[in-house]
Amino acid sequence: MERVEQLRLLKGLINHLDHNTNINAGGIIKTPADTYISEERFDREWNTFFLNHPQIIGLSGDLLKPNSFVTTEDFGVPILAVRDDTGEFKAYANVCPHRGVTIESSKKGEKSKFSCPFHGWTFNNEGNLIGYPKKEQFGEIDKDCYGLKELPAIEKFGFLWVHPKREGIIDLDELLGKELQAEFDAWNFQSLVFANEDLYFTDMNWKLAIDTFGETYHFSVLHKDSLFESFYGNCQMFDSFQRNGRLILCKRTIDEMRKLPDSEWDICAGSLPVYYLFPNIIFMPTQEGAFLVKEYPAENSPHKSYSKISFYFYPHVLEQLKELEKTGIDGKQLLEDQYGGFASVIRDEDYVAAASSHKGLRSGNIDYLTFGKNEPALHHYHNTYREALGMQSLPLEEA
Ligand code: FES
Ligand SMILES: [Fe+2]
Question: What confidence tens digit (pLDDT) does each residue in 303-315 have?
Answer without folding.
Answer: 999 999 999 999 9
